[in-house]
From TrEMBL:
UniProt GO molecular function: DNA binding
Gene Ontology biological process: phosphorelay signal transduction system; regulation of DNA-templated transcription
Signal peptide: none
Protein name, entry field: DNA-binding NarL/FixJ family response regulator
Organism from which the protein derives: Streptomyces calvus
Length: 219
């Protein structure tokens, strides 16, 4: 009987050295194969559309689109592609956002050599993969919500506004942002004005500081 075809993986990380190391781990397994790489979230979406991978392994902090933003778009447009977040951030906020964005698992880069292969296999079996700290965070958070009768807090800005905030903070012009997101420059300007009003900020500099503070871009 023939062995099943290996899981086809898209790997997205803005550091070439990290991609090389992760690729060595994954390609060393007979049931896993990396079919495409990307250096940012926007390229990850392009590669996903071109290659239709079974699994996308996404870093969080990347240029143009973060891994979380790319995950949301992947979950919407290519629901058959499963998503795994591979990150240096042991951070509850990012962990919950990753689950909300459609990720099936959350793996820390510091233990990727130990956890990543099993995380890929679990994700393809339809099982969630969470590192121990994330499991504790999930349980405590859920218990707090139940005890206080609360629901998850709404985000201050919409997903589209978050995409535009990141690109503005990275220094892209309205024309460039419009091209990347396939919307009109006028729509970009409207979203930008809404962002300033919602967040009580005055200009691009303050938007950039805010983007750094909430982890959309690295300082």
């Amino acid at each position: 009987m023939n062995d099943p075809a290996p899981t086809r993986i898209l790997l997205a990380d803005d550091h070439a050295l990290v991609r090389r190391g992760v690729r060595l781990i994954l390609d060393g397994e007979p049931d896993l194969t990396v079919v495409a790489e990307a250096a940012d979230g926007a390229e990850a979406l392009e590669q996903a559309r071109a290659h239709r991978p079974d699994l996308a392994v996404l870093d969080i902090a990347m240029p143009r689109l973060t891994g979380l933003q790319a995950a949301r778009e992947l979950a919407r447009t290519l629901p058959e592609t499963r998503i795994l977040v591979l990150t240096m951030y042991d951070n509850e906020q990012f962990f919950f956002e990753a689950l909300a964005a459609g990720a099936s698992g959350y793996v820390l880069k510091s233990v990727a050599d130990r956890d990543l292969v099993e995380a890929c296999r679990a994700t393809m079996r339809g099982e969630p993969f969470l590192y121990p700290g994330a499991v504790n965070a999930l349980i405590h958070h859920y218990l707090d919500l139940v005890r206080e009768g609360r629901t998850l807090p709404a985000k201050a800005i919409t997903d589209r506004e978050e995409e535009i905030l990141k690109l503005v903070a990275e220094g892209h012009t309205s024309q460039q942002i419009a091209g990347l997101l396939v919307i009109s420059p006028k729509t970009v300007e409207r979203h930008r004005a809404n962002l300033l009003a919602k967040l009580g900020l005055r200009d691009r500099l303050e938007l950039t500081r805010y983007a750094i503070r909430v982890g959309l871009i690295e300082p």
